[in-house]
Amino acid sequence: MSAPWWQWVASTDSLTARLMAAGKPGAFRVRVLRQTIGLPQRDEALALGIAHRRYAWLREVALCIDETPWVVARSVASLHHLQGKGLGNLGERSLGSWLFQKPDLVRGPLEVTSAAPPFNRLTLGSSASSLWGRRSVFEHGGLSLLVQEYFLSTMTDALSLPSR
Ligand SMILES: C=C(O[C@@H]1C=C(C(=O)O)C=C[C@H]1O)C(=O)O
């Protein structure tokens, strides 16, 4: 991975904050693609240590600058953990803004992939392709939340980043 991409992919602070800083003021927006109760994929359940045939909270978003998706993300949490956390009302507010306010927040190790997002609808039907993906588990107040983020080729063009 090139050094400029490493700066993005290996960062452990809020990606929302980084994207806001990289775009023009006010240009950042979370577009919710899907938020639902559904079955996690097997690898997601494994990463969270939950049963993969148990329903979970799933949220898929595009993180956009000027309406162009730069990152697509899918987050997964067990329903049991979610109770009383108020995540259902998040809407188009960023999960990152919510998470990074928690004083007890712990982020597990990052796993990185060059594979495309395994969730089809996140390709958005656009010509953007995913260059790097990563995931980690956030822990806060008994909640374990798997956040998977895929960095799109649109960022390469907009920020003059290397091809990988
Ligand atoms: C985890 C963060 O939150 C971002 C916001 C998300 C959302 O609103 O669903 C999903 C993934 C993120 O990249 C972050 O800002 O670091």
TrEMBL record:
GO terms for molecular function: lyase activity. Substrate binds at R59, L95, E149. It holds the Pfam family Chor_lyase. InterPro entries: Chorismate--pyruvate_lyase, Chorismate_lyase_/UTRA_dom_sf. SUPFAM superfamilies: Chorismate lyase-like. Gene3D superfamilies: Chorismate lyase-like. The keyword S-adenosyl-L-methionine does not apply. Pathway: Cofactor biosynthesis; ubiquinone biosynthesis. It comes from the Bacteria. Removes the pyruvyl group from chorismate, with concomitant aromatization of the ring, to provide 4-hydroxybenzoate (4HB) for the ubiquinone pathway. This is Probable chorismate pyruvate-lyase.
